[in-house]
Amino acid sequence: MSKIDNPAGPRDSEKATPPGGAYRASPLGFEAGLAERMMMPQWQAAEVAMQLTQEMMDFMTRRVRAQVALFETLSRCTDFNTALKAQLDFLSEASADCMDEFAHLAKVAQTRLAAAGSASRAE
Length: 123
Description:
The chain has 123 residues and is an all-alpha fold. It is 75% helix and 0% strand. Helix 1 (28-76) packs antiparallel against helix 2 (80-122). The longest helix has 49 residues, at 28-76. Residues 16-24 have low confidence and may be disordered.
C-alpha cells in the first residue's frame, strides 16, 4: 500500500509493537475488577432511580385512593357547602401531601446517593 492509497499513514493496528509493549494483555481479574468499578456508579444511580420511582408510585397510589374517597364523600353530599368543604379539604390535604412527599423523596435521594458515594470512596 502506498501513501497515495492511505495518506494518513499506517493505522494503529498496523503499527508494530515490541513484545510486552503497550498492547500487552492485562490479567483477566484486573480487567473484570476495572469493569466492575466503572459500572458501580451506574448501578448505584439505577438503584436510586428505581427506589425513587417506587416511592413516587406509592405516593400516587395513596393520592388516587384519597381521590376515590373524595368522590365517595361528594356522592353523599346533600348541599353545595358540604361538597365545597369536602373539595377544599381534599385540596388542602393533597398540597400538604405533595410537599411532604417531595421532602421525603429529597431525603431518600440524598441518603442513598451519600451512601453510594461513601461506598465508592471506600473501594
